[in-house]
């Protein structure tokens, strides 16, 4: 598990993943409706979730959003792309905290951090039916670059996937 630089927003600290975060994320990631757009089905135990979160072979980085009271609000990730300077981002907000603007605030902070540390382009893949995620990406300035029809087979079946991108030079 890779350590990450701590990031601050007005309401959250984004910090490295800890084992106890599996318990905080489990109610969301064990819920079928919340996992509709994941590439895998909902988790069936905290142990299974921890194994996925802390997968030793995964080359990405995880930030956990924690509020001032120490409550976990979401998970934010960056995964190196196939080209130097390109990273893919991802995010999930805990279901009991959705609608508070957490994804926008914390993803925005992650975007700024990644660009400030030398990333030249960010991408995000999103199920074409995931309207909230598409709205978030567009609010952050991402542009839809591609649509891959019947591109990914998930627990929900064969899915269309849109790829969004944002270049460092496009940030305001």
TrEMBL record:
Cross-referenced Pfam families: Acetyltransf_3 (PF13302)
Domain named N-acetyltransferase: which ranges?
A: 12-170
Q: Which InterPro entries match?
A: Acyl_CoA_acyltransferase, GNAT_dom, Ribosomal_N-acetyltransferase
Cited PROSITE patterns: GNAT
Please state what the protein is called.
GNAT family N-acetyltransferase
